[in-house]
Structures are given as structure tokens and as C-alpha cells.
Specification:
Two copies of one chain form a homodimer.
Chain A (H helix, E strand, L loop, with lengths): L1 E3 L1 H19 L4 E2 L1 H8 L3 H10 L10 E2 H12 L5 E6 L3 H7 L3 H4 L2 E8 L8 E2 L2 E5 L3 H7 L4 E4 L3 H13 L4 E4 L12 E4 L2 H15 L4 E3 L1
Parallel strand pairs in A: 4-5, 4-8, 5-7, 8-9, 9-10
Antiparallel strand pairs in A: 2-3, 6-7
Chain lengths: 214, 214
């Protein structure tokens, strides 16, 4: 069995993001040192991660930007488009619908749902808000495997259950709670506060201890 | 030198979030197994993390919820309130201003800024949008150490520079780019797409390989 940590996967997404920026700037060749400096990850980690996935570059030449993008995209499964649904047409939902990076990176929000009947039929970005009852039809029509939820804490588990009943396999959860899901379902919690707490941790402890962040 | 990984810090924030939920439910005592099951992290990791920070619980009794919350809060530096500023009054900014979890967890957005002069004076949530020129005064008045930026890619580095000039030490960055900052500045990139890519990675590779996610 191959073991791979969540952190390695997040590092791969980081490399991919940076490589795409370099590609847009017309940079065709780059070294592991270039990537390391660009993303702030030590060069030996970059080389190790890429070698683990079979990308070795050419000695003295480095990596070809386009082909590295293509390899990492394939590993991450983003060499194809993904249709996703969003539940929750509040402020966070509105930000996500208009977040054009999703589409640019291959994630297409095909429908927005809300349980609040007063919101049904209204628009959010260029999408019309639909009732939850339409989830099964949309998921099946667009072969949706990923659901995003930006709902209040108290609604989160119910929506997760609804996703799972409708064969959704991955959930991006913006609700500040922990979902109970079967092992076969992948959940990512988007927690802005955790990111702030990670900043205050560093700020607080650098004055008390000589921590090295690895 | 004590080495500690970013992942460990994020795990601590996860424990804290879960413990607060249990506290609200009135649960006063819990075991590492309870925490493990609640957050989906193996129990031996939970015990190791807590022991590393000097929390051992009581054999046969477990941890006291309140005192564990207090210890982890102290470690993370969130046993006190933090004033933060936000630059960028777009859709993501609007979601952040009204994101009440920030205040609940001790992060108080004291001002919202935007470089777009047509937005100045308008309101977002219950805040009035201010021009960038007011950053120095506000940062100094409210002793702000953390800046959040939800600005377009092309503005991001300029805002980061402005933050740093004004003695801000930690940046939560919602712009899809990499900031160049001195080593003393802590940056956290909030990347929704990376979370989706991490889901597609798991979905894609479980059919090809027998990965174990650790």
C-alpha cells in the first residue's frame, strides 16, 4: 500500500497553481529551485514530491512547465472537468458562485440549491436558486460527484446525508462543524478561522519558544 | 529547537473547534477516543499531539473539556482577542465581514478597506468601506497584527507590501497567488480550489492505486 499524506496532496495543488502562473507568463523551463522559491517550500521537498509521482525533470535543464502541469493535473484528477453542485445561497455561497477561479481550474458549478423557500427562483451570480428536491435530477443529469455546502451549522449534517444519498462522493464543507460520513466519502472542511489561529499560533510562540515550522 | 509541522497546528485548531462544540453541549469530560472519533483523526495522534503540548488528561477519567479548551487556546494564542483588518470589499470580503464565526472565535474585523474609490463610504455588513490611506491610522489605533486580503491577483502583492509597511505580521490571503514577504511575516493562503483538487485526487487515485491517506 502506498501511503501519502494530506499535506503532500496540498503541496501538489500548490505546485500546480504556481506552474500555471508561470505558464501564463510564458516560462517554459524551470528548476526545482525555481518552484521552491516561488511557493516557499524547500527545494529537496519539491524534488522528493515530484520524484514520488515519477517526474524527474532533465539534469541540467530542469522541468518543462507544460509537461509538469500535465503530469500533476493527471495525478490530481484535474486533467478533466468536474461538475459540482452548491447548497447554500447565502453570503459565502454568493462568493463561491462568482469565484471565477473554480471554472478556470476545471470546476463547474452547475446548480445552486437552498432550503429557504423564499430564495427559490431568485438569482445568485448568473444562477437561479433551486429547491433541494431538484438535487437528485441535477446530480444524475450532470454526473456530479462533488458537492459544496455553505450552510448553517445546524443544516450541515442533513445536507451531507442528502449528498450521500444522491451518490455524491466528495464534500467541500464551509459549515463550521464535523460531518459524520461513511469512509468512502471524502470531506474537506474549509475553515477560515483555523487559518487565522495558525497565524496567531506562530505569532504567540515565536516569542516564547524557538519553534521551527516544518 | 522544537520542530512542529503546520499540520500539527491545524490539528490543534481542529481539536479546539470540536471541544468548543462539546462544551456547548455541556459535555465536561472526554477521552482521546471521543476526540478522535469526532474529528476523524486516529486516537494515537490525538494523544501524541496533546502530550507534546503538556496535556495528559487523567488516567481512566480522560480530559476535562474546559481545561483542555483553555490549554489549546493558550497554545494557539487565542485566549485573547485579536483585531484584524480586511482589504477587499468584493463578494469574498462581504462573506468574511458577515462570517460571525470570526468574532465568536476572538477575531474582530475592525475595518474594511478597498482601493476602488467608488466603494468608499458604502457599507458592507455593518462596516463602512474606507480608503487604503486610512490603514496606518486604524492599524495603530487598534493594535492590529493580522490583515486579511480578498483582492484580485494583480493587487495582492501591493496590499501585502502595504500591510508589512504598517507592521502587520500575519496575512490571511484569499488572492490566488503567492506573496513575496520577509521571513518574519506569516502568510496563510486560503485556496478553495486546492481543497477541491484534494478531493478529486482521492477520487481519481482510489480506483488506480491502493493509497492510504495518512
Amino acid at each position: 500500500m502506498i501511503k501519502i499524506s494530506e499535506t503532500t496532496v496540498i503541496r501538489l495543488t500548490t505546485y500546480l497553481k504556481y506552474l500555471r502562473q508561470l505558464e501564463e507568463k510564458g516560462i517554459e523551463l524551470l528548476s526545482s529551485k525555481d518552484i521552491a522559491e516561488g511557493v516557499g517550500i524547500p527545494a529537496h521537498n519539491v524534488r522528493k514530491d515530484l520524484a514520488f509521482f515519477g517526474e524527474f525533470g532533465t539534469r541540467g535543464v530542469g522541468y518543462n512547465t507544460k509537461s509538469l502541469i500535465s503530469s500533476i493535473s493527471k495525478i490530481l484528477g484535474v486533467n478533466k472537468k468536474w461538475n459540482v453542485v452548491l447548497v447554500g445561497a447565502g453570503k459565502v455561497g454568493a462568493a463561491l458562485v462568482t469565484y471565477d477561479i473554480f471554472k478556470k481550474r476545471g470546476f463547474n458549478i452547475v446548480a445552486v440549491f437552498d432550503s429557504d423557500t423564499t430564495k427559490i427562483g431568485k438569482t445568485i451570480g448568473d444562477m437561479t436558486i433551486m429547491p433541494l428536491e431538484e438535487i437528485p435530477g441535477i446530480v444524475s443529469k450532470y454526473d456530479v460527484k462533488i458537492g459544496i455546502m455553505a450552510v448553517p451549522l445546524t443544516h450541515a449534517q442533513g445536507i451531507a446525508n442528502l449528498f450521500i444519498e444522491n451518490n455524491i462522493e466528495g464534500i467541500l464543507n464551509f459549515a463550521p462543524t464535523f460531518l459524520k460520513v461513511p469512509k468512502s466519502i471524502y470531506v474537506q472542511n474549509a475553515d477560515f478561522t483555523a487559518l487565522l489561529e495558525s497565524i496567531t499560533f506562530k505569532h504567540t510562540n515565536r516569542e516564547m519558544l524557538n519553534f521551527k515550522f516544518i
